[in-house]
Backbone:
């Protein structure tokens, strides 16, 4: 049984109501795929023997081409971690989105321009634009950007075995 | 804000002008659609790969370095390690996160969403082969669902 089959078996036992599809490339060393289709969510996992598990979760009905030929949002080393992550996504009905995508999407959703937000942050629009496109950023930068939009940022840490959740604060 | 962020890849000023991935995909599909029909799987697969590379080279500053696919926000063509055979059909499929690209042996191709809801197949792009047949003509079972 491959790790992808293990993940499917565990998820089927835990979430019997969701549709789970596994597909494997013809090449035995090729990529194996697992897709979970829940009510409003689509979870995609891909793995090959020499690589970690890539994972993305999309909102069904959102931009239908989002994710095409794209790389996964998150990476995990063990099937156990993937199972826990998918479980939490399904229970919390959350998607995985890269930080820089989230900031831009939420800013646009709130109708805030880059000019307005950069003014609130007291930085130039060019500097803010760079920040929004970065693939990594300090937590303090993330917090300031979201708080300037009137949002509240919470960070959850999920423990690997118990799935206990600890919330971190910025104080 | 004066703090320095830990940045693995510094964006350039031209990044503000980079079209969104969905717009680059639309351009890729437009160019493939405008190209002459293909007559073999190999021709169609090469057209797909070549067009994706051309569009990404033209519209983004990201280098064509497939080994860095995990870190570069570039659209990379499907690789052979993602290919599987559609049962009892002369059609190959390439899976990505939530989409599947079918390429038939007559040069037809089709890009769909993986999820089929209530029997409705969501096709994003389709191109007939040089013999005028589409993927579903080569493999009629694909009219019903994704195989």
Residues:
């Amino acid at each position: 049984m491959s790790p992808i089959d293990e993940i499917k078996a565990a998820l089927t036992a835990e979430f019997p109501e969701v549709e789970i599809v596994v597909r494997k490339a013809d090449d035995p060393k090729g990529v194996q795929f697992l897709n979970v289709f829940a009510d409003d969510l689509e979870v995609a996992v891909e793995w090959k023997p020499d690589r970690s598990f890539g994972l993305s979760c999309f909102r069904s009905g959102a931009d239908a081409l989002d994710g095409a030929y794209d790389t996964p949002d998150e990476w995990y080393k063990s099937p156990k971690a993937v199972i826990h992550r998918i479980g939490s996504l399904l229970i919390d009905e959350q998607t995985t989105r890269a930080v820089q995508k989230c900031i831009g999407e939420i800013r646009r959703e709130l109708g805030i321009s880059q000019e307005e937000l950069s003014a609130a942050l007291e930085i130039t629009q060019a500097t803010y634009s760079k920040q929004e496109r970065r693939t990594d950023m300090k937590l303090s930068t993330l917090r300031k950007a979201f708080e300037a939009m009137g949002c509240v940022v919470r960070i959850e840490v999920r423990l690997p075995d118990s799935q206990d959740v600890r919330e971190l604060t910025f104080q | 804000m004066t703090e320095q962020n830990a940045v693995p890849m510094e964006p350039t000023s031209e990044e503000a002008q980079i079209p969104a991935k969905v717009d680059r995909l639309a351009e890729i599909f437009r160019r493939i659609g405008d190209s002459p029909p293909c007559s073999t799987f190999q021709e169609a697969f090469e057209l797909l790969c070549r067009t994706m590379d051309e569009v990404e080279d033209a519209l983004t500053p990201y280098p064509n370095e497939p080994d860095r696919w995990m870190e570069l926000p570039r659209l990379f063509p499907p690789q052979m390690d993602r290919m599987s055979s559609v049962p009892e059909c002369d059609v190959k499929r390439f899976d990505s996160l939530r989409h599947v690209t079918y390429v038939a042996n007559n040069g037809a191709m089709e890009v769909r969403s993986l999820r089929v809801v209530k029997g409705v197949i969501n096709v994003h792009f389709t191109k007939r082969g040089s013999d005028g047949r589409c993927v579903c003509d080569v493999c009629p079972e694909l009219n019903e669902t994704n195989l």
Remarks:
- Chain B touches chain A at residues 1, 3, 5-11, 13, 15-16, 21-22, 25, 52, 69-71, 73, 75-78, 80-85, 95-99, 111, 113-115, 117, 122, 124 (CB under 8 Å).
- The first helix of chain B runs from residue 21 to 34.
- Confidence is low (pLDDT under 50) at residues 1-16 of chain B.
- The longest strand of chain B covers residues 99-104.
